[in-house]
Every structure is written in C-alpha cells, then in structure tokens.
Amino acid sequence: MRKLKPRQGRLLLSEPFLTDLHFKRSVILLTEHTKEGSLGFILNKPISLTLNDAVDDFPTFDAPLYLGGPVRNDSLFFIHTAGAKIPGSMKIRDGLFWGGDFEALKTLVITNKISESQVRFFVGYSGWAPDQLEYELNHQSWVVAKGEVPDIMEGESETLWKSLLQHMGTEYAILSNFPENPSLN
Questions:
Q1: CB–CB of 13/143 below 8 Å?
Q2: What pLDDT was estimated at residue 36?
Q3: Is the pTM of this model over 0.90?
C-alpha cells in the first residue's frame, strides 16, 4: 500500500503506540505544510468549555471548543465551510477554510447564516519546525490520511480516530483495535 505524503488539507492520525498526552489517538487537520514547517488542529480533543464560556462578546452559539494543540493555548482559532462569506479566510482545500474576519463570523452567527456544523473552534494549535514532521513520520508516530470535509467538520470526537483508520484498509483497521493500555489486556 502506497503511503500518502503530508500536505495541506490532509489528516495526521497518531499511531496507537504514541503516548504523548496531547497527541495520543489524535486526528490532526494540517492547515499548513511548507518548507518552513507545519501547522494543524486536533479535531478530536474537545475541552469542557464552550465558545461562549471562553469568549465574552460572542453571540450565543452552541459550539464546543477543541484543544487544537499545545502551542499558543491563549489563542482562539477556527476552521469553517463558509468560504468567501468570511473575508480573509484561507483555503485549506475545496470546501474548507481557516480563519478570517472574526467580526464577519459574528455577523453570520447573529443573522443565522452559519450553523455550528459549519465552524469549529480551537484553543491552541499543533506545530512542527522544518523537517520535524517528516522525522516523526519516519519514526512512525503518524499515519497520513485524506479524510473528507464531513469527517473534519462533523466527525464524532470519541470515534473519529478509530473510524478513519478502519476506512483505510485492513492494515490500519488492525491498528485501530490496538488497546489503549496493552498491559490491561
């Protein structure tokens, strides 16, 4: 089976043996992957706060917050499917965008022109220095996957990692069933 290369818009799925607190069984959307490094957001690590708990002046919007990664945990980031409706958005891939004018996003919320399923919010991000991600891939910390926009925007946090691995074929389906703590097996 030919392994995919990382690139903007692809997903990183942690290998089941990765025990890092932030990245254990995580699914990361790569929003940038260049010679200067890589950046992405963990899609399946919700935190106990909602957007309205964290941002005082945001209109009522029942959106969960996710831990995007261990870098800049004092900052809020978002991805969305609204495209040009949010000026300054950066295209990640067809139908998926990152950031943009936060005030325009608020206006879309107030006017009911965007729903919770069209935007995801993250505290912090995951980042790699130049060549760091390639090093980690060579040491089998990650599996690169395609993923579809519905997986990214609406995938169930608790089952996303396992579900994506299972859809990648037999070799990966076996990995998806590896116990979290083999010593308890």
A1: yes
A2: 97
A3: yes
Q: What are the pLDDT digits (tens) for 73-97? A: 999 999 999 999 999 999 999 999 9
* Phi-psi group of 162: left, alpha or beta (phi > 0 → left; psi -120 to 50 → alpha; rest → beta): alpha
Neighbours of 93 (CB within 10 A): 18
Report d(CA 118, CA 116) in Å as an integer.
5
Under a CB-based contact definition with an 8 Å cutoff, are residues 124 and 75 in contact?
Answer: yes
Residues 41, 125 contacting (CB under 8 angstroms): yes
- Sequence letter at residue 131: D
Model confidence over 22-53: pLDDT tens digits? 899 999 999 999 999 999 999 999 999 999 99
Helix (H, G, I), strand (E, B) or coil at 26: coil
| DSSP class per residue in 128-168 | E-TTHHHHHHHTTSEEEE---HHHHHH--TTTHHHHHHHTT
Separation of alpha carbons 44 and 159, rounded Å: 8
For the chain, the average pLDDT equals 92
Residue carrying structure tokens 């209109």 = 59
CA distance 141 to 120: 25
Q: What is the DSSP string of 31-91?
A: EEEETTEEEEEESS-EEEEEHHHH-TTSPP---EEEE--SEEEEEEEEEES-GGGSTT-EE
The rounded distance, in Å, linking the Cα atoms of 162 and 40 is 19
